[in-house]
Amino acid sequence: MRIIFCALAVAGLVATASSAREVTHALGTTEVPDAPERVVVLEFSFVDALAAVDLPPVGVADDNKRERIQPVLRDIIGDEWTSVGTRKTPSLEVIASLQPDLIIADKTRHEAIYETLGQIAPTVVYDSLTGDYGDVLDEAARIGEAVGRAEEMAQFQKNHEERMVAIRDEIAAEIDGRQAQFGVINANGLWLHSPQSYVGSLLDYFGFAPVMDATGDDNYGELYQQVTLEQVSELDPGVLILGKSEGEPSLDQDWADEALWQEIDAVQSGKVFDVSSDLWSRSRGMLTAEVTADDIRGISQNLK
């Protein structure tokens, strides 16, 4: 603990060395340096927001798997960040050793350690894990303000909107209100993402109709629901998009010969599509949304 608190003290000196301003976020108000340069981010969508304004983070909670940071982001921020561990349980000692002048944390994952993070460096908190696409846009704008690059973020978001609208218009005739369901699948289960989730809201943005009913809550368990083959069969999606990890086994391989699987509309009509779970489910940003949009454009071409 002595090592950690020595690092905390050094980090605190760094954080107060320049002029600061108040930034309002999900857990209150924090004094943040006018132009922070050493930023640690604890969710992938926050990496995306920094990339949008060309600010490489010094530390990233990358789940100890650097490949989870998508190529579209690495092309901008490079590959020099230090891993601070997993998003669920980042290493406070490693974070402190980086002497950050700003930490960006997630409300759902990090509320319990918010006060401790604040002892290391000014910390702002946003809702990435349970936010939808609209929340991503709002929070990116707030992050742009927090890092002193509001104008750059506003310009990026203007261009981002234009790119997304262009793809939406291009594929509108093929989508045309079709029902589509996204889920993450691996060898242990299938988790369907509700209409209120990030991917659910993104599919809605591109004109797909939901398969699942909207829930009254936006908590993690409601947004991401583990289901059985029987439950998928009852939903009977016409388009099924499955997020997978490359090279890893998944339950749909076991279900392939099951009658319930074969009777699902999407399976019968050849409208089951495999995509990257790292991109679609974990990334939840603007630059990565544009790559996801390219996937959706490809899917739409197979709906004609």
Descriptive report:
This protein is of the alpha/beta class and 304 residues long. The protein is 47% helix and 17% strand. The chain is built from 16 helices and twelve strands. Strands 5-4-3-6-7 form a five-stranded parallel beta sheet. Helix 2 packs across helix 7 (133-146) and helix 7 (133-146) packs antiparallel against helix 8 (150-175). The longest helix has 26 residues, at 150-175. It is globular and about 65 Å long. The N and C termini lie far apart (61 Å). The model is unreliable at 1-17 (pLDDT under 50).
Topology:
Layout: H1 2-15, E1 20-25, E2 28-33, E3 39-41, H2 44-52, E4 59-60, H3 71-77, E5 82-83, H4 92-97, E6 102-106, H5 107-110, H6 114-120, E7 123-126, H7 133-146, H8 150-175, E8 181-185, E9 190-193, H9 198-205, H10 220-223, E10 224-227, H11 229-235, E11 240-244, H12 251-255, H13 259-262, H14 265-268, E12 272-276, H15 277-283, H16 286-301
Parallel strand pairs: 3-4, 3-6, 4-5, 6-7, 8-11, 11-12
Antiparallel strand pairs: 1-2, 8-9, 9-10
Mean pLDDT: 91
Strand order of the largest sheet: 5-4-3-6-7
Counting H and I runs of at least 4 residues, what is the number of helices? Answer: 16
Rg, nearest Å: 20 Å
The helix content is 40-55%
What series of H and E elements makes up the topology? HEEEHEHEHEHHEHHEEHHEHEHHHEHH
- Determine the N-to-C terminus distance: 61 Å
Structural class: alpha/beta
Shape: globular
Low-confidence segments, given as residue ranges, are: 1-17
Number of strands: 12
* β-sheet strand percentage: 15-25%
Largest sheet: 5 strands, parallel
